[in-house]
Structure formats: structure tokens, C-alpha cells
Amino acid sequence: MMPKSISISFRELEKLKNYILATGLRRVPTTNEYELLRISDGEVSFVVYRSGKLVYDDTEATRKIIDAIMVEEKQVYNYILGSDEVGKGEWYGPLVVVCTALTPSLIKKYRKLGVRDSKTISKKELFSLEKEISKNTFPKQVSYLLPETYNKLYEGFRKEKKTLNDLLAWAHSAAIKRVLELIKYEKVKVIIDKFDIEKTYRRLYTIDNSKVKIIQKSKGETEIPVAVASILAKVRFEKLVDSLDKKFNVDLRNSRPEDIDIKILPYVAKLHFKNVKKVIKGK
Hints:
The chain has ten helices and ten strands.
């Protein structure tokens, strides 16, 4: 049985401790300094780490405990939006930006599913989670810029003395605005994985802040709507890289820019990356 994990809040941890006391679940010694408590009692087996992560065996008995301790956000918002991007740090492949809009009940469901930052998930689990996520219909915008388009846009921004963060702010704001057009709401919260507060707010200033609360947060993937966006974006990135590999007969993940025919580079690589520019200047 593959263990599953979920991040729990301080309040949920307190509820769990009270549940353990009330039911007499058998605690066993922790095995290292990172563990806060460890339970092994029949079908119930889980470990709580000091980081707030709970790792458990996926049995019906353990799922009932998690249901009992989980705290749902009060229904303040009709939707909580999450926006994230993938491909910013890779010299090859596209830039993918995704914005999702989740209801509080769907957020709870995805928490229990084990949704988290795509950077912490193996490729096999990533595709499995994306498949489970996609069983539910919810408003979202998935946008991508293949290298040829990305390079032209980046060059246009550069000529206007703008930076990559300007391009990212433009892409995120476009995705967020599109999702807001898709939903009916009285109040929503938008969470963006923070990269440049000023440039992002500048792109979103026309949004009605009496109805839309915008939060730019470091490590935004700790929020389920952002984590879902991260997973969807990563899967789309991987599929698009596969398409580029097939189209140009290359293996981008296991290549360096100097391994790629210079005539192909503008179609598979982000030309402003130092390692790519070095190849172009040297040939």
C-alpha cells in the first residue's frame, strides 16, 4: 500500500491530538527528530511531522480520522483562484500558465487526494494526480507559449525595456481575468505564487477589489488552488516537451543547448537564457 500525505494546520493538529486522547489510539516512538508523533493501531497508521505534513496508510479507518479533523474554510468566498506557471526556469520548452477556480468543497477533496506543489511530485504520481483532478469540472484557464512565440514576445518586452517578470505578470493577469469572466461570484479570493508584486498588481488594477481579494504569496503552492494549477501546468509542460522532441527529433530533457542544431534552437529553446545565448554567439 502506497502511503498518502496531507498538510494539516495547527488547528487540525490540535483536533488530531484531542482525537487520539479521546479514542486511545496507540502511539509508538518517533524514529527521528523531524517526527512529531507516530500512530500504529490496527488499520490506523500515520506519522505527523513537525513541518505539518501527515503521512498515512490509505485505509478506511484512517480516512475517517482525517475527515473528522479537517477544518473547512468558512464559506466567505464563492471561489478561490490559484495561478501558477511552469517552464520559467527551464532553457527548453514552453512557458505554461494556469489559473484555477475552486470551491471550498473541492479544495477539501483535493487536500485529501494529496494535491501539493508539482515540484515535490514524481512524474508518475504527477500524471496520476492530474488524472484524478480532471475527473472534476471546474473553471480554469490553461495558457502556454511555445518557444517560437515566447521568444518573439520576450524580445518585444525587452525592446520596451521590460523584463521577464513583465511577461509573467502579463500572462498571469490574462489567465486570471479570463477565469473571472467564466464564473459568477459575489466574492472571490485570488492567490498568486509571488514573483513581482508591483508588476502583477499593475496588470490587475482594473479588477473590482470590492469583490476580488488578491494575495501574492511566497510558496503559493501550499495553497490547494495554486497547487492544482501547478500540477496542471507541469503536465501540460511535459506533454508539450514530448511534442517538441518528436517534431524536431531531439531529447530536450537530456540535452544541452550546444547539443541542438542552431537552426532548431529558436523553436525549442528560450533564447534569452545565458547557456542558449552562448551557443548562438559562438556559432
